[in-house]
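Following the same procedure, sequence and fold were stored together, as reproduced here:

>
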Amino acid sequence: MTYVVTETCIRCKYTDCVDVCPVDCFREGPNFLVIDPDECIDCTLCVAECPVEAIYAEDDVPDDQREFKAINAELAKLWKPIIERKPAPPDADEWKPVKVKRHLLER
């Protein structure tokens, strides 16, 4: 099983999760992070670190977020690894409470 980054991360892109990942399975896009399902070892460390609760176990992804399993797998092949924590975007806190952001995902 792997973990999946969901819609809540879009435009927030806090990287607290990256710091605790023992296998560097996160990939960084313009305004979103994904988890490479081929690299994730199911350690669960990233889940508690995510300040917007965007990371779920593959089997626990909410029904309305299921498409993010495929999005993570697809974009993990295109985006570069991120291995160190970076500052969040300046407006991340403004986007934190916004629930519908799928249309804002930059590939």
Summary: The domain at 3-82 is CATH 3.30.70.20 (Alpha-Beta Plaits). The CA atoms of residues 10 and 101 lie 6 Å apart. Residues 67-76 form the longest helix (10 residues). The helical segments are 16-20, 45-49, 67-76, 92-95.
